[in-house]
Amino acid sequence: MNAQEIDYQIFGEEMQYVEIELDPQEAVVAEAGSFMMMDSDIKMDTIFGDGSNQDTGVLGKLFSAGKRLLTGESLFMTAFLNIGHGKKQVSFASPYPGKIIPIDLSEFQGKFICQKDAFLCAAKGVSVGIEFSKRLGRGLFGGEGFIMQKLEGDGMAFVHAGGTTAKKVLAPGETLRVDTGCIIGFTQNVDYDIEFVGGIKNTIFGGEGLFYATLRGPGTVYIQSLPFSRLAGRVLASIPRGGKDKGEGSLLGGLGNILDGDNRF
What we know:
The chain is of the alpha+beta class. It has one domain (7-240): Double-stranded beta-helix (4-Layer Sandwich). Helix content is 16%, strand content 40%. The chain is built from five helices and 19 strands. It has helices at residues 57-70, 136-141, 200-205, 228-238, 254-259, and strands spanning 7-11, 17-22, 27-30, 35-38, 42-48, 76-82, 88-93, 98-104, 111-114, 119-123, 127-131, 148-152, 156-162, 165-170, 175-178, 183-187, 191-196, 211-216, 219-224. The strands form four sheets. A six-stranded antiparallel beta sheet has the order 5-6-3-10-13-8. A six-stranded antiparallel beta sheet has the order 11-12-9-16-19-14. It has a four-stranded antiparallel beta sheet with strand order 1-2-7-4, with no helix packed on it. The longest helix is centred in the N-terminal third of the chain and has 14 residues, at 57-70. It is globular. The protein starts with 6 loop residues before the first strand and ends in a 6-residue tail after the last helix. 33% of the residues are buried. This is TIGR00266 family protein. It comes from Arenibacter aquaticus. Pfam families: AIM24. InterPro entries: AIM24 (IPR002838), AIM24_sf (IPR036983), Trp_RNA-bd_attenuator-like_dom (IPR016031).
């Protein structure tokens, strides 16, 4: 099934949203929870899977939905169909600070591989599946990058990245080493593996994890500066135990807690 052609515009800087313009009978599918606003005459419907194979019967629908469970996503997605007579708009918002990246699958030979939580929305007809690792190293130590999503078709898809994004075009044989969580996605020709950092000092005191991803060209790679796992870790680390932090913002800092009788670190 060919994906429908859609027009779009991205608004904002740090907390972006994408506005998609739908012609009559055009549709877009999105992850549950990403919807922001829509015009009248747009019908919202919950569907199994990604909606790319709705004509394959019950088993096809169940298989499409089942693939999403393996990536930790919901069985369902939401479809937005323009049932009116003129152009209508529907918008989807970023889940946390970062950038929305438009991916034209027709420019990437019909396939793009991305982190399992990066997908935001796509034209109806784009298939959202899973990309299994073919190497033991990725499976055992890949972390966020073990099971990835693959977007297939010839339409537009939109992925979300945290912080600032970087686009790297790798020449044949050129290698890029990246923190596994900082990968947004890459084209299908890029060879992806996990490598051990090495060195006793790096292993014990490095603080950057024991493994990193090695991406080898040719192909295009998208990198994010703030993966959600890192953002969540910093937020959790800043929450004071016991529900209070009297030394925050003071010159004494943690010493203020000790003098106050709270000697927990």
